[in-house]
Amino acid sequence: MMSQTLGVLALLLLTYADCQEVRYETKTETTNYGPVTMVVDNLAEIAVSVSDDTTIQLEEKINRTRQNIVGNIEVLTANAMAELSDVIYETNQLVVSNPDCNPAWSLDELNENVTRQLGGCTEDLGSLLEDFRLESQLALVRVQEFVQQIAHLPAKCQMLGASPLNPLASAGGSVCFINAMAEINLGMAQSMHNASLILVQTHQTAEDQVEQAQLCSAMVVQQIGDYLREEQDQCRQS
């Protein structure tokens, strides 16, 4: 969609430039199938509409990526706790019914310990999420700035063509629009490219970190499970 947007903006720019060669001269204004300002306004509106659609899609991709990272963290934690739930319940029941086997037993402390260790497993994903939130927001704002520049471009260029003392005023306004759109097109292309890189790199990094977090969580589950089963054995022998 981003490449399509840039193609549309480039096409609008070429269309306007070509139209400058087909004009009707009147006593009051230079027309291009209508007033020049009307053509500029229409082209700018089309460009803003297309760019807005692209910005919305970019924002949706950013939100999906952020939600995926959050979802991965939640799933990893939930799966690990689910694997430990039975052995935690069994150990707690056994210790509570035999208080002499482990007077220092605390289910709350155990749960806090498990949560802390699992949190360490997903710490890198949490950092990635925060970095992505900041970088993607800046990238989105940059793209939105170019959309605003397009929206304000007709009024800006119209000022150059408003001087009655300048015989080239109308041409100046046209040149302003063509040059500014070309510059905006390049800037938006770079901004969208940067946003795409952030999305791709974050996706790849998230995949790698999810794999590492899964290994870490599996180790935590194994260690906590072994500890609790040992507690059960000792409690039964006491």
From TrEMBL:
Residues 1-19 form the signal peptide. Keywords: Signal. It comes from the Eukaryota. The keyword Signal applies. This is GM26358. It comes from Drosophila sechellia (Fruit fly).
